[in-house]
C-alpha cells in the first residue's frame, strides 16, 4: 500500500472536509471541532445533542481529611487543555490497557468521570449564583455564591484500590497525590505500547540545545501522553571530573522540582510585661528569638522592642510640642530633664567597663560578678552585637513563674528556652515578664568598688 507520512497507510487516514456557512459563518462541527450536530433548535437557539458545559465552579466535600485531594483535583480540573482533553472524550483514543506500569486505563476513566461531573451544567438560576452583575467588594472580602458541590466518593475509593497509601480518610500531602496522579495518568494514556531500550547519550561537546533535543526525543520514544506535553520539562545536570575537568551534561525529564527551603532558626514567643509603674498598662508582646537561645536572649529581644517604643513615644511627644507652642515652658524643661536622666541611666552606666590592664585577678573577679559569662566565643560575639542599652534594659527584666495569684520563682537568665516548651506539643507557653527597679550592672558595681 502507498503510505502517507511516517508509515501510515492511506486506508487508515480519515479526512473530514468542512465548509463554513457563508451566511452565518458557522462550521458544521463548531469552531473547536467537537460538535457533532449542526441542527439548531429554533426555539432555544442551541444545537441539538450538544453537551452543555457549566462554569466549573463546583465544590468538593471533604470526606474526613481529604482536603489534599480536593485541592489537587480542583487545580487539575481548571487546567484548560487538561480539562478539554477529558470533557471532549479525546482520552478514549489514548487509553493504554496493556501497559504494566499503569492501571490499564482505570485511573484515566475515574478521573474523566470526576472532571466531567465538575464541568457539567447544573440547573441553577443565575440570580442565585452571584453572577448576575459585577459587585464591587473591598480588598480581602469576598461575595458568597450558591455553588453546587460533589462528594468524590467513587474517585476516592478507586484511588485507595490503586494505592494503599491513599486508602482511608487520613491526611496526606497534596504533592504526593499529584505525583501519583500524573504518573499514573501518563502511563494509562501513554501512546507508546512497546517501550524501546535507549542508552542515555553523553554530551560529547555538543551544544546544550542540541543535546536537550536528543534527550527529549529519546524520552518521547518511551513516554508520550497529554501529561508529558503539559507537565514535563527538562533540567540540566552537569558532572565535572576533578582530575581531567571533563564535563558531562544530562537533560533529565522532570515533573516536579524539589527545592530546599532554609530552616527557620527563629521562633515566636509571646510575653506579658508587667511594668513597675502602676500607671502603665500591662502589655502583651511577641518577639523573635533563636530556638536554642536562652532567657537572656529572650529578654534582650524584648528590650529592643521596648527601646523602639520609647523612641517612638519621644517622637510623638516632640511632634505634640511643636504643634502646641503655648505649652508651659517649665513643664517642657521637667519632661526634658526626665528623659535625659532616663537615657543617661542606660548610656553612662553601660559605658563603664573594667580595666583589663590591672592584672589577671581583676579580670577574673570581674568575670565572677557578671550576671551571665559564657565561655563560648560564639556567644560572646552575639553579646557584642547587642546594644549596651538593650543589655541594660534586659538586666532590669525578669521572667517569673506565676501560679495561684503569686510568683513561685524567678527563672534564671541562663536557662535554655527548650526548658519552657511543652514536652508533648513543643509549643512555647505565654511567658510572664516583670520589670524591676533599675539596678546597677555588674560592671558598674565592680567599677564603683574599685
TrEMBL record:
PROSITE patterns: USP_1, USP_3. One of its GO terms (molecular function) is cysteine-type deubiquitinase activity. It catalyses: Thiol-dependent hydrolysis of ester, thioester, amide, peptide and isopeptide bonds formed by the C-terminal Gly of ubiquitin (a 76-residue protein attached to proteins as an intracellular targeting signal). Residues 24-47, 315-385 are annotated as: Disordered. InterPro entries: Papain-like_cys_pep_sf, Peptidase_C19_UCH, Ub_carboxyl-term_hydrolase, USP, USP_CS. Residues 58-450 form the USP domain. One of its GO terms (biological process) is proteolysis. Keywords: Hydrolase, Protease, Thiol protease, Ubl conjugation pathway. Residues 38-47, 315-350 have a biased composition (Basic and acidic residues). Its EC number is 3.4.19.12. Residues 358-382 have a biased composition (Acidic residues). It comes from the Eukaryota. The keyword Transferase does not apply. Belongs to the peptidase C19 family. This is ubiquitinyl hydrolase 1. It comes from Ditylum brightwellii.
Amino acid at each position: 500500500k502507498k503510505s502517507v507520512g511516517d508509515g501510515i497507510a492511506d486506508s487508515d487516514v480519515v479526512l473530514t472536509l468542512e465548509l463554513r456557512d457563508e451566511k452565518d459563518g458557522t462550521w458544521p462541527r463548531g469552531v473547536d471541532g467537537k460538535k457533532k450536530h449542526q441542527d439548531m433548535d429554533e426555539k432555544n437557539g442551541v444545537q441539538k445533542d450538544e453537551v452543555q458545559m457549566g462554569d466549573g465552579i463546583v465544590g468538593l466535600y471533604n470526606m474526613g481529611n481529604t482536603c489534599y485531594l480536593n485541592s489537587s483535583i480542583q487545580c487539575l480540573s481548571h487546567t484548560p487543555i487538561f480539562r478539554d482533553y477529558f470533557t471532549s472524550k479525546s482520552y478514549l483514543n489514548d487509553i493504554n490497557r496493556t501497559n504494566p506500569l499503569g492501571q490499564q486505563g482505570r485511573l484515566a476513566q475515574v478521573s474523566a468521570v470526576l472532571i466531567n461531573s465538575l464541568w457539567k451544567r447544573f440547573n441553577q438560576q443565575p440570580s442565585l449564583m452571584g453572577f448576575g452583575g459585577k459587585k464591587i467588594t473591598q480588598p480581602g472580602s469576598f461575595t458568597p455564591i450558591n455553588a453546587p458541590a460533589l462528594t468524590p466518593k467513587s474517585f476516592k475509593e478507586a484511588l485507595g484500590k490503586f494505592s494503599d497509601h491513599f486508602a482511608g480518610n487520613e491526611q496526606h500531602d497534596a504533592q504526593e497525590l499529584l505525583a501519583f496522579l500524573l504518573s499514573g495518568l501518563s502511563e494509562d494514556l501513554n501512546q507508546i505500547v512497546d517501550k524501546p531500550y535507549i542508552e542515555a547519550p553523553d554530551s560529547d561537546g555538543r551544544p546544550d540545545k542540541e543535546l536537550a533535543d536528543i534527550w527529549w526525543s529519546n524520552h518521547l520514544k518511551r513516554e508520550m501522553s497529554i501529561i508529558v506535553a503539559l507537565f514535563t520539562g527538562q533540567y540540566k545536570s552537569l558532572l565535572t571530573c576533578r582530575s581531567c575537568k571533563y564535563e558531562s551534561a544530562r537533560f533529565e525529564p522532570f515533573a516536579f522540582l524539589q527545592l530546599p527551603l532554609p530552616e527557620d532558626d527563629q521562633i515566636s514567643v509571646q510575653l506579658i510585661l508587667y511594668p513597675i509603674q502602676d500607671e502603665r498598662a500591662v502589655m502583651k508582646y511577641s518577639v523573635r528569638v533563636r530556638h536554642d537561645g536562652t532567657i537572656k536572649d529572650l529578654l534582650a529581644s524584648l528590650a529592643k522592642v521596648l527601646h523602639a517604643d520609647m523612641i517612638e513615644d519621644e517622637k510623638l511627644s516632640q511632634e505634640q510640642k511643636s504643634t502646641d507652642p503655648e505649652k508651659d515652658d517649665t513643664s517642657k524643661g521637667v519632661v526634658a530633664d526626665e528623659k535625659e536622666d532616663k537615657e543617661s541611666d542606660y548610656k553612662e552606666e553601660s559605658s563603664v567597663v573594667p580595666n583589663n590592664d590591672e592584672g589577671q585577678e581583676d579580670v577574673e573577679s570581674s568575670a565572677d560578678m557578671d550576671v551571665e559569662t559564657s565561655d563560648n566565643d560564639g556567644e560572646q560575639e552575639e553579646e557584642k552585637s547587642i546594644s549596651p542599652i538593650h543589655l541594660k534594659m534586659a538586666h532590669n527584666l525578669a521572667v517569673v513563674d506565676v501560679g495561684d495569684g503569686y510568683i513561685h520563682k524567678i527563672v534564671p537568665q541562663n536557662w535554655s528556652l527548650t526548658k519552657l516548651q511543652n514536652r508533648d506539643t513543643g509549643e512555647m507557653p505565654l511567658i510572664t515578664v516583670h520589670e524591676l527597679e533599675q539596678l546597677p550592672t555588674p560592671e558598674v558595681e565592680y567599677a564603683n568598688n574599685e
